Each structure stands twice: as structure tokens, then as C-alpha cells.
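name: query_chain
kind: protein
chains: 1
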Amino acid sequence: MPLFKKLKDKKEDTESSAEPDVKEDKRDKRRSFRIEKIQAITAKAKEVAGKRKWLAIILGLGIVIYFLVSGGGFSKMLPMIENIKGFFN
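structure:
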């Protein structure tokens, strides 16, 4: 089986030359690209979450204002506001 041994020796000779540097460079570039991609995705997700938070707050305020106006305005809440003011006076 010297045929396989010769092929194996040739592969080892070619791999031991400049290829490991090229392979390591490619590997490093790929890893850094993946890390940058993950960081970009997480930054985008944080921005979207911030926008959704403010959207939820605005929608909640809109619903509260709608119920206040449709339920007769602030006339029903006036006694509660007076009670709250009493705590601070």
C-alpha cells in the first residue's frame, strides 16, 4: 500500500506550507463576520423593542383617554382627584 502513503505524504507537504496561514485568515474573517452580524442583529432588536415600548405606552394612553371622554369626562374623577390632593395638603 505505498500508493496511499505517497498521497498522504504529498497532502501533508502541501498542508504544511503556506496554507495554514490562509486557512487561519479565512477562519478569522468568517468568525469576525459572524460576530459582527450577531451584534448588528441584537442592536436592531433593541431598537425595535424600544419603539414597541413607546407604541404600547401611546396606545394605552389613547385607550384611557377614550374611556374618560366617553364615560363623561373628568366629572366622575373629580372627587378622586380631590382625595389625592388631600394627602398632599
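note: The chain has a mean pLDDT of 79.
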